[in-house]
Amino acid sequence: MDTLTPELIKAALAAAPASPQIFIGYSGGVDSHVLLHLCASSAMLKGRVTAVYVHHGLQAEAGQWAVHCEKVAHGLGVSFKSLCVNARPQTGESPEEAARNARYAALAALLGQDDVLLVAQHREDQLETVLLQLFRGSGLRGLSGMPERMAFGAGWLLRPLLDIPKQAITEYAQSHSLGWVEDPSNQHSDYDRNFLRNEIVPLLKRRWPALDKTVARAAGHCAEAQTLLHRFAGQLSDTAINADHTLSVSHLLALPEVEQKLLVRHWLQGLGEKMPSQNVLKRLQSEVLAARADAAPWVSTSGYQLRRYQDKLYCLRPDATALLAGVWPKGQQSFAITGQRRLACVPSSRGIAKAVWEQAHVDIRARQGGEKIRLPHRQGRHSLKNLYQEAGVPPWERELMPLIYLDGQLAAVGANWIGAEFYCEAEAGCMAFVVQTAD
């Protein structure tokens, strides 16, 4: 318990840039109450701390807990904020995952540049996390457990209690006569983490009392190894990942299989996607990478598809399935062509004459087949099929390429080509197209 002093918070904050604001994830439970009490006891943090309660709406008592948390925060001289979130699970999400994702998304949105979020996870939480990852067959990244410090939103997330045992936290709360709430759902072993906490970990600790400390040490070893692997994967990706965020198939095939898997995971992590299962990676190697060079094979997993075209491996999200056609409203600068993409018309020195664009009736249409267009500085009319092949446009992208018609005549094909009849070159007198992708 003697390690639980405001100095612990000061040391944790020293690992992050100077933070304008400090937010504390405060559920009203004993762990977050102790963290809040430590921060409120620090003179250096006075006036900079805000306790944040996330209302999931999953418990009947949640409203009362919010009132309790606000009262405690104000009693400690700390600002308070309550956030309501939608924690209903999406397809493929467990209730635990849905609540966690909703909570962290709401907290991340709070943080300004270099602000800090403190959360109260401790050493037993780390033990449960590593065991859960082990039982799920995770690799080094999962077995590394939770980091003490990580980038989060526009700022940082810190876990200053991560090396503190639960017993020390409980003793601190009792010695300072803190009052906290108990979530009755924590006693139900239906959820995996509760099952571990209530039934498995106590049994293990009777045999191995220092289990939380030794598993935390093992997680640290995994984290170090993962750091080295990440650095190595970054070196591989320097030449293998293309400027358009695709992955070079020829570079992949030049690597041993184990390095292929490492590079694919590193690439997907950079795209913000979930890690593929071992089965998906095997199928990728046997069905996609090993396919004929003129084939266009693919493999699906939760949330995205991995498709190959020529020498590139693409990661495609499910929103890119159909083009949204329609009339482009006059005066509107962009037009939604899929759930994640917009076609924007911007001033340019080359493109369609601005006066022509502003006066025309504009339709966005999908490809029907057989369309042709005459291009500036080229002879004859060209089929879109031939143009797509020349430019190496993947087959699925061809169906999503918007065709822009002005007064019923094909004037442009996406951001790629403009018809010769509409093409002009004039300083700031033209309009050109760009495709914008939502983050």
Provide the descriptors you would attach to this structure in a database record.
439 residues, alpha+beta, Chorismate Mutase Domain, subunit A, six-stranded mixed beta sheet, five-stranded antiparallel beta sheet
How would you describe what is shown here?
The chain is an alpha+beta fold and 439 residues long. It folds into three domains: 6-205, 3-Layer(aba) Sandwich (Rossmann fold); 241-316, Chorismate Mutase Domain, subunit A (Up-down Bundle); 326-437, no CATH class. The protein is built from 15 helices and 20 strands. It has helices spanning 6-13, 30-40, 62-75, 95-110, 123-135, 140-143, 166-175, 192-207, 211-240, 249-253, 257-270, 278-289, 354-359, 384-391, 395-400; strands spanning 22-25, 49-55, 79-84, 116-118, 149-152, 155-158, 247-248, 298-301, 304-309, 312-316, 326-327, 334-336, 341-353, 362-365, 372-374, 381-383, 403-406, 409-413, 417-418, 423-437. The two termini are 45 Å apart. The model has no long low-confidence stretch (mean pLDDT 91).
CATH-defined topology of the largest domain: Rossmann fold
In round numbers, the mean pLDDT is 91
Count of folded domains:
3
The CATH architecture name of the largest domain reads: 3-Layer(aba) Sandwich
Q: Which stretches are low in confidence, meaning pLDDT under 50 for 5 or more residues running?
A: none
- What is the CA-CA span between the terminal residues? 45 Å
Main pleated sheet: 6 strands, mixed
Find the count of extended strands (DSSP E, 2+ residues).
20
Helix percent band:
25-40%
CATH superfamily of the largest domain: HUPs
Count the helices. How many?
A: 15
What kind of assembly state do the chains in view correspond to?
A: single chain
Strand content: 15-25%
Regarding CATH, which class of the largest domain? Answer: Alpha Beta
